[in-house]
């Protein structure tokens, strides 16, 4: 033990951030996407995806001892945040065999459970294969195909953007040899505290293993940044949701001051954990999305999201987030809200204010900058594709009645047709491990360039 301590001290003197392992070569699954120009001419981009650092094997820098096993840290290798980062390495990944992540041409498929692994979170890499692809979404549209036919209640096949650093924070934190290549630097509007590394240091201090999740826990720090949920969905319900924060860049927070899902006080932090969501079912349009509905989730679909600015420029103020759908060669406008006092079929400042009033929700969205604040963050965003279940609320906020003790007839409470708790993790992990989501045909460009809108 004394020798081990001396080794950690020696390592700590030279480095202070997470390291990259050498036991398995890190090879990113290739994935193509298309960048489009005015008029609809599109160019194929050769890119790849990388799995988030939180899912990787973390072991001693000079050996193969686990720094983290199950949901606990090794006390000798990780006595504190800095020593742990100095003495532990993130290892390369076997994407298909360990995580159930496969890519073919322009399609990425994520399997829910693969062996002992549950869920995954992946980022789109730039063509250099060393940094994340950065998107400026303002005055642009983002289009993709998705197949959610194999996603039951309780699961979420998500495609979204956050304002992470393009290099995973590597240039900000001296000694960080892992960076974007190993999936570091995550943040979102929940200011997640389940991350093993934040700002180049481990999150071991104050770490409390989860009582329900054998792989997770909550540490003393969180990582905050704006989040644009283009797509959170399964075969029953879908939602798109902007989540602004006070800062447009990634910031570290402390304990329960982080707010969000992982803290005692949800609204204590600098981000809006609720956002302003558009879920057709929640807006009273119960026959729009789902099996056999207007948008039939038994078949793949094309999802188009437009980020409209007030002056029609890439630097103007965000004024509307508009949704179109394409299925069976038919363009379908987004569902209209049927909630009294909440009109429209897109996200605008007026829609969000009216929705918060109608649902009796605190307008945390406006307190953190609202739609304009979200627009400020959209100029530099990283694309994420993931599949996950929910140990906090069983995904009832997406596809069931939530809060579960509320009157389902009250506006905003019913989010989908799933029975409460049918999506409990122990149920879906046992019964639906083979569930998958497939994202494909990603296109990005000026408004009107990625699909043909109705005249």
Describe the structure.
This protein has 455 residues and is an alpha+beta fold. It has eight helices and 30 strands. It has a 15-stranded mixed sheet that branches. A three-stranded mixed sheet has the order 1-7-4. Strands 5-6 form a two-stranded antiparallel ribbon. A hairpin with a 2-residue loop joins strand 5 (68-69) and strand 6. Helix 1 (2-14) crosses helix 2 (81-87). The longest helix is centred in the first third of the chain and has 13 residues, at 2-14. It is globular and about 60 Å long.
Class by SSE composition: alpha+beta
Radius of gyration: 21 Å
Distance between the termini: 73 Å
What fold name stands as the CATH topology? 1,4-Beta-D-Glucan Cellobiohydrolase I, Chain A
Summed over residues and divided by their number, the pLDDT gives a mean of 94
Number of domains: 1
> How many beta-strand runs?
30
Region (Disordered): 408-431
EC number: 3.2.1.-
Keywords: Carbohydrate metabolism, Cellulose degradation, Glycoprotein, Glycosidase, Hydrolase, Polysaccharide degradation, Secreted, Signal
GO molecular function, one term: cellulose 1,4-beta-cellobiosidase activity
Question: In brief, what are we looking at here?
Answer:
The chain is an alpha+beta fold.
Topology:
Layout: H1 2-14, E1 19-20, E2 30-36, E3 42-51, E4 58-60, E5 68-69, E6 72-73, H2 81-87, E7 88-90, H3 95-99, E8 101-104, E9 107-111, E10 113-114, E11 117-118, E12 120-125, E13 134-135, E14 140-147, E15 156-162, E16 197-198, E17 201-202, E18 208-209, E19 217-218, E20 221-224, E21 227-233, E22 238-243, E23 251-254, E24 289-290, E25 295-296, E26 301-309, E27 318-327, E28 330-333, H4 349-359, H5 364-367, H6 370-377, E29 381-388, H7 396-399, H8 425-431, E30 436-446
Parallel strand pairs: 1-7, 2-30, 24-25
Antiparallel strand pairs: 2-3, 3-12, 4-7, 5-6, 8-9, 9-30, 10-11, 12-29, 13-29, 14-26, 14-30, 15-21, 15-29, 16-17, 18-19, 20-23, 21-22, 26-27, 27-28
Helix pairs in contact: 1-2
